[in-house]
Amino acid sequence: MQVSNRLNTINGTGDDGWGLFNRSRKMIADGVKITELTIGEHDIRTDASILDAMHASAKGGHTGYATIPGTNALRDAVAARIQSRTGVPTTRANIMITPGGQSALYATHLAALDHGDTALFIDPHYATYPGTVRGVGGVPVAIAATPENDFQPQIAELAAAASDPRAKSLLINTPNNPTGVVYSRDTLDGIAQVCKDHDLWLISDEVYDTQVWDGDHLSPRALPDMAARTMVVGSMSKSHAMTGSRVGWICAPEDMTEHLINLATNTNYGVPGFIQDAALFALNAGEALETQVAAPFRRRRDLTLAALAGQNVVQIVPAQGAMYVMLDIRATGLSSWDFANALLDQEHIAVMPGESFGAAASGHIRVAMTIDDAAYVDAINRLVNFAKSRISEK
């Protein structure tokens, strides 16, 4: 029996971006002690009060079939959160609860694209973006945001790609994974204009909206005339350390939300009620809990800056948000793959090669700030010393 061509080609023709991560996990399974700075998994667990709420809901009987678009209470809470932060009128009719942000990315692209349509996205990008587009039958097209421009997308290049009549959507992510860059107001204004000029859906991945260290988060849905053509992807994973609970949302125009609900009815059939109740409890805890979850990453961003001061071998990309820093290691003369693999072999430190996230991040590595402060600083210092040793060998 044959596997469908869609699944056979979902990761394209190359590495899916997870090669080094998988190798580090195998080393751990074989008993090697590895300092893991690879994936965006908090070093704290979901707050006990959220788990208590989840347990109480399950024990109370909210374990039957889910309400497909999400419970009214949770949709109302998400809508209120979005409206208060963006100023854009938002109701439950704009909200569908999803099994995490990845499910929302898949659904929004399935909603925006027909088979063979082009979906634009920015390189560097989260590793699943191209596969998500291929999975719905679309054609992924990356537009490079280069280190020379601090990884801010260039509007002229976006407009050129958008002029393709097959282009139907543009996916952006700010604060950005993997770079840690927050898109400027000028960049977002330009992105909005491209979408209006070329009649594109804008899919805005905003799962890091609570992790902004410099400046402010601006949702492009709040820009003039953009609410009608924007679908926002949100998640409890990063903001509330609920990665394993798999609860996120899509905020979209009302008519699109109805279609997305039809899709959910025929695919995942909703998110378990007791998990939705836990998410509602977490949102009702307010910004104090979100600040508590984000605080270690703000602190470690500052620790990174201090550790890198006074040397010019390893340079940091503007670290404005998210739980990662992107480091420029081009001075070593190594590719990011070679640097990361050698670092893993010699120092037992696992980081993600920049090319895991697209060609534009070549010569860079992504470091997840997801271990305790002392171990993290030690790892950064060892990484810098490793880089310096590579220069001395040249």
UniProtKB/TrEMBL annotation:
InterPro entries: Aminotransferase_I/II_large, AspAT/PAT-like, NHTrfase_class1_PyrdxlP-BS, PyrdxlP-dep_Trfase, PyrdxlP-dep_Trfase_major. Its cofactor is pyridoxal 5'-phosphate. SUPFAM superfamilies: PLP-dependent transferases (SSF53383). Its EC number is 2.6.1.-. One of its GO terms (molecular function) is L-aspartate:2-oxoglutarate aminotransferase activity. One of its GO terms (biological process) is amino acid metabolic process. It comes from Yoonia ponticola. This is Aminotransferase. The keyword Cell division does not apply. Residues 34-382 form the Aminotransferase class I/classII large domain. Belongs to the class-I pyridoxal-phosphate-dependent aminotransferase family. The keyword Transferase applies. It catalyses: L-aspartate + 2-oxoglutarate = oxaloacetate + L-glutamate. Keywords: Aminotransferase, Pyridoxal phosphate, Pyruvate, Transferase.
